[in-house]
Write a structure and sequence with these properties.
Length: about 110
């Protein structure tokens, strides 16, 4: 039986989802005065945590920019991505879809 693969997701949708489960505390940051313990990290907090400008992070999250390798590494670390999520991140950046689809199969 062939495993069912979900279609590749956009960088935009992944970053929004992953930021949505990340708190300022996860990033090593204090909460803003109006944030409670359950509030998710803001775009500004994500930008600070991965050491990029707020505008650049907003462009990443809107799909208007492509991250560098250093930014990909920082995102993966700060968002605490597991192995499969890291693969999804790279896939979304490179737009590979299924990287093994074009490889010949061994007999």
């Amino acid at each position: 039986m062939t495993p069912v693969q979900s279609p590749p997701r956009s960088l935009r949708s992944l970053l929004i989802e992953w930021r949505g489960r990340t708190t300022p505390g996860d990033l090593g940051l204090p909460r803003k005065p109006h944030q409670d313990e359950c509030d998710t990290a803001t775009q500004e907090q994500m930008a600070w945590a991965i050491e990029v400008s707020v505008r650049y992070y907003q462009e990443l999250e809107s799909g208007k920019a492509t991250p560098s390798l250093a930014t990909i590494r920082s995102l993966a670390q700060k968002l605490r991505l597991d192995r499969f999520e890291r693969m999804a991140l790279v896939d979304a950046v490179l737009g590979w879809g299924d990287p093994g689809a074009d490889l010949p199969h061994a007999c």
